[in-house]
Design brief:
The protein is mostly helical. It has one domain (about 1-135). About 80% of the residues lie in helices and about 0% in strands. It is built from eight helices and no strands. It has helices at about 1-20, 25-35, 40-50, 55-60, 65-75, 75-105, 110-130, 140-145. The termini are far apart.
């Protein structure tokens, strides 16, 4: 089952990435990506992998050691669960990057490579966006005078 779920994980996230990267200004992209629930299908895969193995997972995450983590991730279920974990969080962060870039007026041609970097190497994509976002205006709500 872990092999099938592993394969399914990115397939569930890919349409949302495609919308953000390929059609960032389409009205349907804003409607779909506007919901944080876009990560729900991947979260379901994660739950299907982790919940049956909770007895093995909890000791590793509550008192982590390198050897314990290596042993857990060395199993098909552990690797598939870690993949689902990464895909879910990368998609959630990518969604935030896309929304933040739109609010700040960052050009789609600047945001698209950042989103691809986020798909491939999540934290690095986030870091690049955090560095780049300072070059564009603040979101409208952030610059409104306080009454």
């Amino acid at each position: 089952m872990s092999t099938a779920l592993f394969g399914l994980t990115f397939a569930l996230a890919a349409p949302f990435w495609a919308l953000m990267i390929l059609t960032p200004r389409w009205s349907w992209t804003a409607r779909v990506v506007g919901s944080p629930l876009i990560v729900a299908p991947v979260l379901l895969v994660y739950a299907l992998l982790v919940l049956p193995a909770l007895g093995a997972v909890l000791p590793v995450v509550t008192a982590p050691t390198l050897d314990g983590l290596r042993e857990l991730l060395g199993t098909a279920d552990g690797a598939a669960a870690a993949w689902a974990h990464m895909i879910a969080f990368d998609l959630f962060v990518g969604r935030w990057i896309w929304q933040d870039a739109r609010e700040r007026g960052v050009p789609a041609l600047v945001t698209a490579p950042v989103l691809v970097l986020t798909i491939l190497l999540g934290p690095l994509g986030l870091g690049v966006h955090l560095g780049l976002r300072q070059r564009w205006r603040r979101p409208v709500a952030a610059v409104a005078p306080v009454a």
